[in-house]
Write a structure and sequence with these properties.
This protein is α/β, with parallel strands linked by helices and about 180 residues long. Helix content is about 25%, strand content about 30%. It has helices at about 10-30, 45-50, 105-115, 175-180, and strands spanning about 5-10, 35-40, 60-70, 80-85, 95-100, 120-130, 145, 155, 170-175. The chain has a six-stranded mixed sheet, sandwiched between helices. Strands 1-9-8 form a three-stranded antiparallel sheet. α2 links the parallel β2 (about 35-40) and β3 (about 60-70). α1 packs across α2. The longest helix has 18 residues, at about 10-30. The structure holds inosinic acid. The site of inosinic acid (IMP) has 19 residues, from β5, α3 and β8.
Length: about 180
């Protein structure tokens, strides 16, 4: 385990198992559709990579969008910026937004509005993690990997100041790592 991690919350094996279940469920739900999976950069990269291994939908596509709300720190500043927009037109498409974590819900609210403004026919959300205790907006993902407690987590795409994304598990960051600054 990495020296800055207090505890592994979700192991690599648990993530793989749950991603398989989600992939199979999504494949059933979108069997006769041509969904566009929209992964939010950078945090959802490992998750979308894992998830699509188990998706058996012939006509699916993936695209990426980058928004920022945390500016590298621990608390949200409630300000969501679009850093990279989608490559393709999603007018009339069935969109599945792929997120790493739903925390306050502010990012998701903004992204959902954007997808609807772009003319998506339907918009659903799959999130690896859900930190429900911190919710400020009444919004839920349609598919959730894991419910987690109100702790700052890193790994499997999630960062603290752009670090720890490469860890193969989701872990709780030691308090001393961010109190040092
Ligand atoms: P929200 O807008 O508050 O729901 O925040 C969503 C974004 O905040 C996520 O996509 C993450 O990038 C980031 N975030 C929220 N909680 C955590 C955490 O515990 N660790 C790392 N990033 C987090």
């Amino acid at each position: 385990m990495h020296k800055d991690i207090a505890k592994i919350l979700i192991s690599e094996e648990e993530i793989a198992k749950r991603s398989k279940e989600l992939g199979e469920q999504i494949s059933k739900d979108y069997a006769d559709k041509a969904p566009v999976f929209v992964a939010l950069l950078k945090g959802s990269i490992p998750f979308i990579a894992e998830l699509i291994k188990y998706c058996t939908i012939d006509d699916m596509e993936i695209d990426f969008m980058a928004v920022s709300s945390y500016e590298g720190g621990v608390e949200s500043n409630h300000n969501v910026k679009i850093i990279k927009d989608l490559d393709r037109d999603i007018f009339g498409a069935d969109v599945l937004v792929v997120e790493d974590i739903v925390d306050t819900g502010l990012t998701l609210k903004k992204v959902l509005k954007l997808m609807h403004d772009k003319g998506a026919k339907s918009v659903k959300v799959v999130s690896l993690l859900n930190k429900k205790e911190r919710r400020e907006i009444d919004i839920e993902a349609d598919y959730v990997g894991f419910e987690i407690p109100n702790e700052f987590v890193v790994g499997f795409g999630l960062d603290y100041q752009e670090r720890y994304r490469q860890l193969p598990y989701v872990g709780i960051l030691k308090n001393e790592v961010y109190s040092k600054e």
